[in-house]
Amino acid sequence: MASDEIIDHYSALARSALHGQRITDCDPVAFTGGGFGPAGYDDTTALPDGALRASLGCGNPVAVAELRAGETVLDLGSGGGIDVLLSARRVGPYGTVFGLDASPAMVELARRNAEQAGVTNVRFLQGTIEAIPLPGHAVDVVISNCVINLSGDKAAVLAEAFRVLRPGGRFGVSDVVTTQVLDEQARHRAEERIGCVAGSLTVQEYRELLVEAGFVAVTVTLTADHGDGVHSAIVQAVKPAIGPGLEIRPMRESDAAEVLAIYQAGLDTGQASFETVAPSWEGFTASRLPRLRYVAVDTDSGEVLGWVAASQVSARSVYAGVVEHSVYVHPGCQAHGIGRALLTAFVAACEDAGVWTIQSGIFPENTASLALHQAVGFRMVGTRERVGCHHGVWRDVVMVERRSPVVGT
């Protein structure tokens, strides 16, 4: 269905719920036996009957989001408000839960349900999940229940979720996914059973879009099996953590000048590399892997304050999970935790990418870099003595590496 058709469809369901009818969006057997609707929840006591009647989800994202008292939560596609109301319990009176839905009738229904439940720490917004009407860094957790699969632009949805999350914020949704690309017949059969398969992503596609948006620690856990390779799933990810006023995101081509300036400033210290002149942007990108590149930026000015990137160690398949990395921080922003935050995010991204060894060479005189790497789990494996001549001096290089405890074990 097109976007307008989806909104009209769910508005009609909401109007039915407003008139006291129980609504479903899939085969009745799937609705009760497959964990759809209120069957997906373990505790719905004290919730208004209207919220239960309008529940169309495929799981219980509230149970997996690990909500804590005082947090701010956003529910994408909040429908009749059941997940908003359950989240409001978890975050308590000092927390806030936003519910966002494109259907005016659903927003009306959710507000009525919240009023009936006597819940005051919730706010319902009308808008699309592809253009969330909240400022950046506004929420601690993004949840959703069988809605993202309906979007025609899932990359925009996940980019928006990343934007509104604070650093360290969590993404935890229930959704419908497939384990392989479905042919038209299989997709039609599944659509008839559970009603929300048409736009579902494969597990790998979901993971890739989350990584492209900037998320790390990505997991997709299959739950109910609906046949034909279609599953309900719990999808979780994290926005990299960093200090106030900062953000870690994927490196972009528009960052080129600032990235290379920071690179050159590091080289000018004489302690960063045997190189003395930063490469061109074309040379930089050609020698580094396209995915494992991140920058730390000032959220007010957008200025790049540091970066980390990886290079392939060898083209031989046996080294597919081994990378060499570089991390550089603006000379005016060192000792502020930026390097550590970048490396921590980078390590998590490497785990997601199936990297089992991260390695680098560091001059022994660069004690700050050695300490930083040891702090995030790297070990010194040896020293290559007088390995290269730098500014007329033969220099040693300390080899450091981090072996993944989960990949390649």
From TrEMBL:
CDD domains: AdoMet_MTases, NAT_SF. Keywords: Acyltransferase, S-adenosyl-L-methionine, Transferase. It catalyses: arsenic triglutathione + 2 [thioredoxin]-dithiol + 2 S-adenosyl-L-methionine + H2O = dimethylarsinous acid + 2 [thioredoxin]-disulfide + 3 glutathione + 2 S-adenosyl-L-homocysteine + 2 H(+); arsenic triglutathione + [thioredoxin]-dithiol + S-adenosyl-L-methionine + 2 H2O = methylarsonous acid + [thioredoxin]-disulfide + 3 glutathione + S-adenosyl-L-homocysteine + H(+); arsenic triglutathione + 3 [thioredoxin]-dithiol + 3 S-adenosyl-L-methionine = trimethylarsine + 3 [thioredoxin]-disulfide + 3 glutathione + 3 S-adenosyl-L-homocysteine + 3 H(+). Its EC number is 2.1.1.137. Belongs to the methyltransferase superfamily. Arsenite methyltransferase family. One of its GO terms (molecular function) is acyltransferase activity. Residues 246-404 form the N-acetyltransferase domain. It comes from Nonomuraea salmonea. This is Arsenite methyltransferase. The keyword Transferase applies. InterPro entries: Acyl_CoA_acyltransferase, Arsenite_MeTrfase-like, GNAT_dom, Methyltranfer_dom, SAM-dependent_MTases_sf. PROSITE patterns: GNAT (PS51186).
